[in-house]
Amino acid sequence: MSELISGNPELSRNLEENWEAKRQLIEDLAKDIHAHPELSFQEHRAAANITALFADHGFTITVGICDLPTAFEASIGTGDLVVGICIEYDCLPQVGHACGHNLIAGASIGAALTLAPLVDELGITLKAIGTPAEEHGGGKVLMLERGAFDGVGLSLMAHPMHEGRTSNPLGTTTQAVGRFKAMFTGQAAHAAAMPHRGINAADAATLSQVAIGLLRQQLPDTHRVASYIEEAGHVTNIIPDYSVVQFEVRAFELEEYEQSLAKVRRCFEGAAVATGTTLEFEATEPLYEPVVQDELLATFWNDAMAARGNDVSPVDPRESSGGSTDMGNISQVIPAIHPMFAVPGATAPVHSAGFTASANTPEAYQVMTDAGLSLAAAASAAVLADRDRFIAAAYARG
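-> structure tokens emitted (398 positions)
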């Protein structure tokens, strides 16, 4: 653990004791979130249970902030440095908590409860910020735009990952991702009696998929394009006059993302020209930006995780696996970290049913404890080491 913490035995002991005093409450809540998965913007049970726990421990609660019913702020302390701990609790369709947001919630809730008795000693205002809709919807982006992070000087959270992944965030980032739908409009006609009078929007959807498949050969290895046809006709004897293709584009650099997005859009435009359909695009979610890891916070996190026996070896850039998070948008404007923590025994990839099961094991809740305590230790050490920088970094909208 950081010398700023390990060299302060009383503070170190307080962190451990504070967590242990609430360990069962934290774990029970994480298990309940796992057992009752809720989709983006629908996390009513999770938000209610989390805020109730914070209220029981002296936090001031505001629910429904930023015009989002399942977003909240739980605040304690009056210090001039505001520390924001982000909490995620939405799930994925069909597979539930296959990204381990129950563990994210548990680690963040635990870190906040662990720090709460120390806010006066550290001279901070602590805000546990409930951020819905990370999987789809960009809750943090909306909340950043609407003021939830105003005045926050540093922000933290941690994310579970498969077994064998280092927990070291130094040198890591995430991909920018933009999500859209392409809508083709043609002309309906009887598929047998008057097919020559039709303009087939389903053909346009098919051609766009083929074009994207061919484009992938010319995209950099770290870029990703994914798509599916949401609608393209309903019966065989009508030429479809409308089709919808949902798609996303990812890249580690924003400029490269924009370049690949332009190429993908041309695939749809070419399909429209070839079929005679008209084409419209619509963004379906806010742009997720790449994560910027604050070096000091990351170093303190590494110290704390290593002290608890977790791997913090340097990340091999050749093993970058991609992925995106709306925490990237926070980290672009506020010093922040979004490290990973490996779940022992989790051999299935995230976003799979296998990882859903792995996120609800004794081993998962133990490493959740490691992550939560490390978040609390990193925040404490950072406040002691570089208070003025974080105060100066407090976010203020344009």
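The two ends are 37 Å apart (CA to CA).
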